[in-house]
Amino acid sequence: MEPIISAKNLSKHYRMGEVTVKALQEVDCEIYPGEFIVIFGPSGSGKSTLLNLIGGMDTATGGSLLYKDTPLHNADSKQLTLFRRNTVGFVFQFYNLIPNLNAYENVALSAQLSSDPLSVKEMLEKVGLGERLDHFPAQLSGGEQQRVALARAIAKNPEILLCDEPTGALDHQTSIQVLRILRDFCDEFNKTVLVITHNSAISKTADRIFYLKDGRLVRIATNESPLPPEKVTW
Question: Hey, which CATH number is domain 5-93+160-231, 3.40.50.1980, 2.60.120.200, 3.40.50.10190, 3.40.50.300?
Answer without folding.
Answer: 3.40.50.300
